[in-house]
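Training component of the fellowship. As part of building independent skills, the fellow (R.M.) carried out the full modelling exercise for a liganded target. The chosen ligand was iron/sulfur cluster. The inputs are recorded below so that the supervisory panel can assess the work.
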Amino acid sequence: MVKTDFGPPKYLDMMSDLCKRNYGKWKYHEVLDTGTLVHVAENGEKLYTVRSATPRLMHIDTLRAFCDLADKYCDGFFRFTSRHSIEFLLEDETNIEPLKADLHAMGYSPGGVGNTISNMLHTQGWIHCHTPAIDASGIVKAVMDEVFDYYSEAKLPARLRLSLACCLNMCGAVHCSDVAIVGIHRVPPKVLDEKVAKMCEIPNVVAACPTRAIRPEPSKKSVVINDEKCMYCGNCYTMCPAIPIFDPKNDGAAIFVGGKVSDARHPAMFSKLAVPYIPNEPPKWPTVVKTVRLLIDVYAKDAKQGERYGEWINRIGWERFFKVTGLPFTDKHIDDYIFSVPTFRSTATFKW
Ligand code: SF4
Ligand code: SF4
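Fellow's submitted model of the complex:
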C-alpha cells in the first residue's frame, strides 16, 4: 500500500494492544471518581481513563510534557476528546494516583467525568479566526474559573455540557450543548469601496451571501449591501477582507440553553435562546460569567436527578424557566426569521 499524508491514519493504528484486542467488545463502564473511568471488556480486561480539562490552545512544551506523562504511565497512549479534554488510557490501576499527582504538579486538575461539567468546548476567538464577535479562550478561562466546583465535584443532577462559538458560523456545538455562549454581530459589514476594487473577486463576494443581500456596484467596482436583508453572518468578510464586520460597540454574546447530543431517555435536542445579548467585557467578561453561573446554579437546585438541562426546561416550561432564573423575556426571544418555520417541528435527528 502506498503511504501518503492525505487524510487521517487508520484509527486502529493509534490504539493500544488492549484496545485493539477488545475493540467492539466492551461490556460496561463505571465512573470511579470525577476524574477517572474504568471500561471492562467481555474477557474481564480493564482500561482506566484519567481525564483532565486542557485550555485547547497549548504550547508545544505542554504537549511534550503530556507525551512524557503518557510514556511514563500508559505506554504513550492518550487521546483528546471532542471537548478538548485529555484522556490518559491506563492498563495498570496503580498508575492512576501517581499520574494524577503529576498532572496536579503541572497545574492540571483531573475532573469532568459523570454528573459534572466537562471541559468547555470552544472555538478560535480573537487568537485565530477572522470573524469572531467575542473572544473564545478568554471567556472560557473566566467561566471555567467560576464554575470549577461543578467540574471537580459531581453535584449536578446530570452531566452538563458547556460550549462557546465566537460567531454564528458556530464551530462550537452551541446548538447541542446544555449551556452555550455564541458571539453575535449586530450591524452589517462596512464596504471599503477602494479596497474592494483592488482586493476582492466581486462575483465570489456576491455568491457568498446566503440571504442575497449583496449586489455589485459597477460604478465603483465594488458592492452594495442591503442592510434589511443582512443577517450579520460575516460570510462576505470571509471572501473579501475589505468588508469588515467587526464593531466593538455592537458585537457581543448571546446565551443558549437546553441542547444535547445524547439520545438517552429523550432524543437529541437543539438549544434555545435564553439571553439575547451581553456586550463584550474583556478581559474577564463578568456579566457572561455571572449569567452562566446563575443558569447552572438554578438548574442544579431545581432539576430532578438524571434530568438534562433541556429536559428540565421542558418539564417546568419556558415561562417558569424565565421566572426561576430571573432573566427577562424580551421580543428578541421570539423567532421570526423567515426560514425558521421548518425548524419548529424538528429535533436534531428528525423532522416531521
Ligand atoms: S465560530 Fe466563527 S469566529 Fe469562531 S472560529 Fe468558528 S468561524 Fe471563526
Ligand atoms: S454579513 Fe452575511 S448576510 Fe450580511 S451581507 Fe455579508 S454575507 Fe450577506
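The panel noted the following from the submitted structure. The mean pLDDT is 93. The first helix runs from residue 17 to 21.
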